[in-house]
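We treat protein structure as text, and this decision shapes the records that our systems exchange. Such a record has a labelled line for the sequence and another for the backbone structure tokens. The record that follows is passed on verbatim for readers who wish to inspect the format:
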Amino acid sequence: ELPDEGPLTFEFDLEVRPDFDLPQWKGLKLEKPVHEYTDKDVDQALTNLLARYGRLVPHDGPAEAGDYVTTNLSFRHGDRELSSAQEEVIRIRPVLSFRDGKISTFGEVMAGVRAGETRQAEAELSEDAPNQALRGQKVQATFEVLEVKRLELPELTPEFLQDLGEFGSEADLRDAVRDNLKERLVYQQYRRARQQITETLTAAATWDLPPELLKRQSERELLRAVLELRRSGFGDDEIRAYENELRQNSRQATARALKEHFILERIAEEEQIDAASEDYEEEIRLIARQGGETSRRVRSRLEKGAGMDALRNQIVERKVIDLILAHAEFQE
């Protein structure tokens, strides 16, 4: 308020961190998933790796799980067409996930399909779908299959092994694949531990979060999760599927992640934990190695967006999680 004379009154709102009592974080009892990888596990992982370098060839017979279909697809709600796409290439898998929903029966619906056939399925939209009127609703998906294709894997020739990673033999490649599986298990152990820590620490966190903060934070939380997956060696298809899963549950996931962030931030402050320059270098090096890029290129991409900020949060939160894990009791 600006009066003709006298004092000026100016009011504004600030979003501040909630005031809360820090929960007990020492001595938590946690489950730890363990797994001994067999030759069959390595075979499957090697097939998944080689699939990135394979080529799609036409297949005359019925489609099986893992095959690809070229399809014209459309989504309808009642008599109204919501969207459509021409000649989309889709892999047949149990669940077809997209940005604002999923088809849980996709693998069953497309089993045995041939070129020229049309299949229909029910798609369920998420509670965070852009179209507010259709959130949580079911829509009809139609797939007009134009062609069935099968993935032809590359031969493990000496030249291909060299190009893939300077492997001297197939045995060397299999050893590298097994090592990568072990790295992923470490990630799964970390993720499971973090889920349990989050559930425990946020159990009593009933305080409200500002809606605008939730909205802004959703993309940041998504970026943090993607960075974590990249450093752990997950491929683009797997990361894309996980992104879709996160987007479909963004409000709940973001609210939980924000409460976790506030609690971990408090612990970091009390324990004087922060990110050092060498921490950034190590994270960027790992992301670059897993993605086959240079560290300079990864850093440049992160600096252009909000990546470095997300990376800082990831580093600090991981250090706090490691501290909590050091004081925890595990059951395999």
About this structure: Residues 19 and 207 are 9 Å apart (CA to CA).
